[in-house]
Amino acid sequence: MKAPTRHLSFRPGQLPTSATELRSEVRALLERERLAGTWDPAEHRSWGSNNPELSRALGAAGLIGMTWPREFGGRERSQLERYVVTEELLAAGAPAGFHWIADRQSGPLFLRYGTREQKEFYLPRIARGEIQFCIGMSEPDSGSDLASIRTSATRDGDHWLINGTKIWTSNAHRAHYAIALCRTEERSDNRHAGMSQFVIDLKHTDGISIRPIFNLAGSHDFNEVVFDNARVPADAIVGEPGSGWDQVTSELSYERSGPERFLTNFHVLRGLVDALSRSASDEAQRQVGRLVSHLWTLRQASISVATTLEQGGLPNVESALVKDLGTHFQQELPEVARRLASAEGLHHGALLTVIENAIMVAPAYTIQGGTTEILRGIIARGLRLR
Ligand SMILES: Cc1cc2nc3c(=O)[nH]c(=O)nc-3n(C[C@H](O)[C@H](O)[C@H](O)COP(=O)(O)OP(=O)(O)OC[C@H]3O[C@@H](n4cnc5c(N)ncnc54)[C@H](O)[C@@H]3O)c2cc1C
Q1: Does the beta carbon of 54 lie inside 6 Å of ligand 1?
Q2: Among 138, 174, 200, 255, which residue has the most ligand 1 atoms within 8 Å of its CB, making it the best to mutate?
Q3: I want to staple 317 with a disulfide (CB 3.0 to 4.6 A). Which of 4, 275, 348, 382 is the partner?
Q4: Which fold has domain 19-131?
Q5: Residue 253: what pLDDT?
Q6: Annotated catalytic, 255?
Q7: Are 179 and 238 in contact (CB under 8 A)?
Q8: Looking at the domain 135-243, which fold is it?
Q9: pLDDT tier at 171, thresholds 50, 70, 90
Q10: Cβ(143) to ligand 1 under 6 A?
């Protein structure tokens, strides 16, 4: 008999009372750093761009790894407080890519599964904004079907030998470390067994070639990374051998439901509203109103997921839904802006450039962090609709 349909659960979440103070703190820091010339708001590259100086300033202010224990460089603040900081960085388009992955995924991975030595070695440096991480999951023949990865790690005395190829590895050419998912046992009937995660020092390990891949907009953000007998120490394994699959999937709720899934091109909406502020047709007002109400609803859904995560829940289906709806929003936004700019005669060069760039990067939203088809599969299965 088919199991009964499960319903989505988006219980209203509330940001903490400290949110207002934190917002002012982040805004003041960004303004100080802007005046000091650390970053330029006109670049609008947000978490896709790297600015080690800005990350160090955020680290010094206690805004990286802020939920982690103090003994590892954290500030023991709540996930919802971290949410507020993330939201402010995105709304400002601050170039926070240097620490983004480490703060969001690698640090929490060490905290949950790492040894005490790993926590002491990596976490304080991440929290100070000193080291950058990248994620080595995808391979040339394994993207959506991540369980089919072939990169192997074989034990060799006090070391592991890594062999294989990772692809689309964002920031591998800049990052100090990669967290790579590797096969530590032969494939068996259980497709999810026999994988492990490793922390690999990209700057000091022989046998690693990092080759650039240029995207549609002409920038070099991701890479192909080839491991040819790359020798890493025995203690480079993160978590239990063979538990890589469970560890990786537990990262995904954090990766998918955050405000970066609908605020990455917020500057397009702001630019559009500014440009229309003197005069806007009824149709333009209707279109902008629709976008803003979608954004507001997405934000409520995302805050609800963040609240569930804070309370120890694992809302995988709801996270997948936020990511899917966020993708739709972020792709629709520059298209609507393009149509309105033309219909309303908005000939502002800066706005048109912003829209043009946003249209060029928009296809990536469908793919990164799980493709639309895969997310819809997760949602359908989670709701027991298939
Ligand atoms: C900007 C960007 C940054 C990225 N950064 C990283 C990174 O730092 N590290 C990393 O490891 N990876 C990264 N990726 C890779 C990304 O995670 C993969 O591209 C993604 O998982 C899809 O895998 P694939 O490219 O092999 O496509 P495929 O899995 O081959 O999918 C191709 C198409 O087939 C569809 N499809 C596949 N399987 C099914 C199915 N079962 N049912 C229905 N449809 C299906 C997909 O939805 C997609 O439309 C990045 C990707 C992008 C775009």
Answers
A1: no
A2: 138
A3: 382
A4: Butyryl-Coa Dehydrogenase, subunit A; domain 1 (1.10.540)
A5: 66
A6: yes
A7: yes
A8: Butyryl-CoA Dehydrogenase, subunit A; domain 2 (2.40.110)
A9: very high
A10: yes
